[in-house]
Design a protein that fits this description.
six-stranded mixed beta sheet, about 40% helix, about 25% strand, about 250 residues, Rossmann fold, single chain
């Protein structure tokens, strides 16, 4: 479990996050949603330590991440997996080398052990025997699946996904959503997804935190969201074509 406890963050005197408290649960896809500029990306960056909080704290399974030194944070960082918005694959490396990258960086495993892990995660994302392909030879959906394989190569306890469906068609986006949810449940990962895609929310939103003007404005599940009596949330949700159809 990851806990944000009374987090505040400001830039140049402007408050971006104001007293955010929220729990992100293991074995669930925990979604953060909100309009552009609402503070949701800043919140995720605070959770992973890319931004330091001005007040409050971030807690990983009882460990106060905010009070740790850079050296002390290393252990928790090695328990994190990151899925970046555009995949962020190394174009000069093939699929196998991309997935093996964190294993080379952070483990002392033998080459045989690393290859076993690479092949396992590639099989898990339905890319078996694609080891030698280069990123330029992959479709957008395949690139995202390679990025997911790399993100889980280190057997993370925590998985952070920043706009995982960016640039994908709706059908491929749905495949990526379900894959993230399946992996989360299968390996009991605490997964946090930063998204503005309401298709994702209604498909895999085990828990949903709506950030509005730097505040935690609403929290619930995908089952709750369509019936929520929250004007700002409704304006955000029902501004999309999909949820407008569902509401009718």
């Amino acid at each position: 479990m990851i806990q944000a406890v009374e987090i505040c963050k400001q830039f140049n005197g402007q408050k971006v996050l104001d007293n955010i408290s929220c729990e992100f649960l293991p074995g669930m896809t925990n979604l953060i949603i909100g309009q552009s500029g609402s503070g949701k990306t800043v919140l995720m960056k605070c959770l992973v330590g890319l931004f330091e909080v001005d007040c409050g704290k971030v807690v990983y399974d009882g460990r106060n991440f905010s009070e740790m030194s850079i050296g002390q944070r290393k252990e928790i960082r090695q328990e994190m997996g990151m899925l970046f918005q555009m995949g962020a694959l190394f174009d000069s490396m093939n699929v196998e080398q991309n997935v093996m990258f964190p294993l080379n960086m952070f483990t002392t495993q033998t080459m045989e052990e690393k290859l076993d892990r690479v092949n396992f995660v590639l099989q898990r994302v339905n890319l078996e025997n694609k080891n030698r392909l280069m990123p330029s030879e992959l479709s957008g959906g395949m690139r995202k699946r390679v990025a997911i394989a790399r993100a889980i190569a280190m057997k993370p306890k925590y998985l952070f996904c920043d706009e995982p469906n960016s640039g994908l068609d709706p059908q491929t986006a749905g495949v990526i959503d379900i894959l993230i949810q399946e992996i989360t449940r299968e390996f009991d990962i605490t997964t946090i997804v930063n998204t503005h895609d309401m298709n994702s929310v209604l498909s895999i939103g085990d828990t949903v935190a709506f950030i509005y003007e730097g505040h935690l404005w609403w929290r619930g599940s995908k089952e709750d969201i369509l019936q929520a009596e929250n004007n700002e949330l409704n304006e955000f949700v029902f501004g999309t074509e999909l949820t407008s159809r569902l509401r009718r």
